[in-house]
Amino acid sequence: MATRVLIADDSEFMRNLLREILEGEFEIVGEAENGVEAVNMYEEHGPDLVMMDIVMPIRDGIEATTEILEENPGATVIMCTSVGQEEKMKAAIKAGAEGYITKPFQKPNVLDAIGSAV
Amino acid sequence: MRVDVRALGACNRLAERGAEQAAGALSDLTGTDLAVEVTGASVASGEDLAEAFAGRESIGVSVGLRGGLEGEAVLAFDAANVDALLSLLPGGASMERSAVTEVGNIALGGFLDGWANYLGKAIDMSPPRYFEADGAAVLPDGALAGDGVFLFESRLDATTTDLDFSIYMLPDSGPFRDLVVGKTAPAATAGAEAAAGGGDAAGGSTAVPYESLSTFASLAKRGSANAADNISMMTGLDTTVDVSRLRFVPLADVPAEVGVEPHAGTVFELQGEPSGYLAILFEEESAAAIAESMLPSEPDEPLGGMAENALCELGNVMTSGFIDGWANVLGTSITHSPPEFVHDIGSATISPLVAKLSRRQDYGFVIDAAIQTEGLQARCDVYALPDERELARALDRLSET
């Protein structure tokens, strides 16, 4: 059974790019445009993995990750972000992210990160 | 506020590294190589910036910054290049705004990483905002307000396609401003001072009041206008000053900015306070046309002995026009050497001056002015490279008067 993935990114362009990379090998259960949608869609679909952007409107990816993990301690989240700052990454890991990939990413980076996390 | 020239150098290095990271991210995303052409900080009034950006139509992406840095950073490019950019992005053509916004997001994220890691503090970026802007409206909020601002600008050029980007950031508040004024004393600055012989003790303070710097930028502008008037007087051609800006740049970048096209003109050494160097350069064809307009008959060679004499004399008069205003306002005496005629590829004409000044400093205030002549397709670029410590001293005195 394919790993079920939720994509959370405010950029339609990035969501499309990630979908193109993942489709075929993974099942995309939904696409969220902000942190609130990500939390709601997680509750709705219960995916195996969330690919979570950090910088998003309404609620950012770190806050959304914290909220998802509070309710679902077994959730797996990978941060995918344009920001590679050490402090931001520490905050992401502290929030419970399994790993992160920095945009722009290529298919092998994404698959490696997922392979390590799931 | 007092701007520390050395701290400004450290900030410039961070901006340069950030720009390199942004170029790397953009290269990965678009599949085309991009290189950082130049990174510098310009001192300009809102009026100057409005003039410099007049007629440009840009597409930009801005992000708000909080935390380690506060303010706004903008990635912008020429609106005419949007199709070229979209064609490089997978699926880009079908989602113009989203694709462009993400390009800005990724590039600015890369740009800010270096700053955040250096500061040891996270920088929070707001979600990117796409915009289309005419003229200087592309610049971060606050750029056009007040008498003058520091505007950090990095230009990224694609090496194989006609695509270039600019990143703008204003040190208008909070931690960024503290960095520029040297309050947070970046380690890179301390290292640079030690290498240069030790800050205050050896060479005098390099902190100058921002207001004086702004005054100096105005003086530079006036100097450019004087130099343009002198061209008019000697050639009978009407002239206009297209751009005149005071910029703080790595000296090593200056030759590349002049470029590889053949240039002719004159270079001078300045003595007094500030000492330094001044170059008056024309593209080769412009130099020949200007010289011909000053001579009673067409010279045997376009840039032979007669033309050389004419350009030397023109350089003499322009240089005087340029520096007289400085000396008067700064209350110092500045003289200049006899003109040295130069005729070579652009970078080679100015490299010797940069090499001499680089013995004392890595960064410099470059006053660049572009003077256009009406009727003749001739353009003249003036580069003034003052000694940073002496300029700081003179500007500090200016603030006390």
From TrEMBL, chain A:
Modified residues (4-aspartylphosphate): 53
Sequence ranges assigned to domain Response regulatory in this UniProt record: 4-118
Keyword RNA-binding: no
Positions in coiled-coil regions: none
Signal peptide per UniProt: none
InterPro entries, sorted: CheY-like_superfamily (IPR011006), CheY_signal_transducer (IPR053548), Sig_transdc_resp-reg_receiver (IPR001789), ST_Response_Regulator (IPR052048)
Keyword vocabulary terms for this entry: Phosphoprotein
CDD domains to which the protein is assigned, alphabetical: REC_CheY
PANTHER family: TWO-COMPONENT RESPONSE REGULATOR (PTHR43228), TWO-COMPONENT RESPONSE REGULATOR ARR22 (PTHR43228:SF1)
Name of this chain's protein: Chemotaxis protein CheY
Organism: Halorubrum yunnanense
